Amino acid sequence: MENLLPKARPIEFHPLKLAKKQELTKSTFALEFEIPSALSSQYHFEAGQYVTLQFPVNGKVVEKDFSMTSAPYEEKITLGIKISSEESFANSLFKDLKTGDFIEVSEPRGRFTLSSKPHEFRTIVGFAGGIGITPILSHFKNILHTEPRTRLFLFYGNKNKKQVAFKNELEELANQHPDRLEIHYFYSQEKVGNGLFEGRLNEKKVALIINQILQLDDTDEESTIWDAVDEVLICGKGEMIKSVANACYRHGIRKKNIHFELFEEFNEDIYPVEKEFPLLENIEVGFKLFNKEYKTTLKDNKMRLLQQLLIQKFPVPYSCKSGICGSCECVLEEGQVELLENEYLTEKEEASGKILACMSIVLSKNIKVNFDLM
Q: What superfamily does domain 13-106 belong to in CATH?
């Protein structure tokens, strides 16, 4: 999770003490922050959410988002972070942040969450790629703690065995809950003697997983484990999410039960757009952003609203461009748009006039939107 520009709504930060820093692999590490009792209500969170860290890099204060691996019952904030390069924000954190230091940490937010159902028998499947394990680990710990009737299956992809982050913690969870948690590891650049577990997690791999792993269900001899899946959680790079999500949908899981979190900018739709829209030209757009009023003209409506505003160099907040992160959330005050499928807005929010600019096709000659959400 990494916002390129902040959302127009303010983010609340507080200084938190770093209690622990741990190297996990050569390119990943974990940070654990203490939550003082005076701030316990501000740092109440749901499994799957994230926080933003503020940290000085080369004389400038930089903000980056990181998903939590901790579960709410643990009453702490633990993050898993990947170092992509020597010049990265993550590497600066790893080199310069010491145990006992204080750092500005935002209050938790994010919608990669699930409703808790402790009295139901549920089957939940997770697909994680690399550091995408972080929010899924939070979910799985929380579910194992709060839902005694839920069983979990995790399919976790990495380049090789040495790059598996949180392997010890995952194995400990599996040993503690052998009847409720099953983990399978996949390697894209290492041979392990079984073709099923070699290669990337993608649409073809999901089909093999369904046919070879999620087969006979001990709780129901007339169906398979896949037939019983209630929710799917996916986190990783955009191509992986797109491929796995579509595979799950084509194998019978409803889109509303497929949840995903993106860790980088992704400019494609997760699901194919199946509708056609009437062509409009010379569209007048007015919008409010960071307390400033703007007006512009769009040549036509062949592209979504966000993409067109970015082409015109307006500083509109965004991250994923795929309807997942909510960074481009705004209110439609005048005009009409078609809001394509998205993972972020609720039906109630859509009914109140909220839209995501990245998933909006303009359907009127004049529109007005407000990005300044308070």
A: Translation factors (2.40.30.10)
Residues 6+ apart with CB under 8 A from 251: 206, 207, 210, 226
CATH of 281-370, one of 2.60.40.10, 3.30.1330.10, 3.40.50.720, 3.10.20.30: 3.10.20.30
Average pLDDT for 139-160: 98
Average pLDDT over residues 21-43: 96
Strands 77-82 and 360-362: unpaired
Question: What are 323-364's pLDDT values in tens digits?
Answer: 888 889 999 999 999 999 888 899 999 999 999 999 999 999
Q: Quickly state the pLDDT bin for 273 (edges 50, 70, 90).
A: confident
Q: What is the DSSP track for 120-173?
A: S--EEEEEEEGGGHHHHHHHHHHHHHH-TT-EEEEEEEESSGGG-TTHHHHHHH
- Number of separate helices (H) and strands (E) present in the chain: 7, 20
CATH architecture of 123-262: 3-Layer(aba) Sandwich (3.40)
Amino acid making up residue 257: N
Give the span between the Cα atoms of 365 and 248, in whole angstroms.
38
Tokens matching residue 340: 């394509």
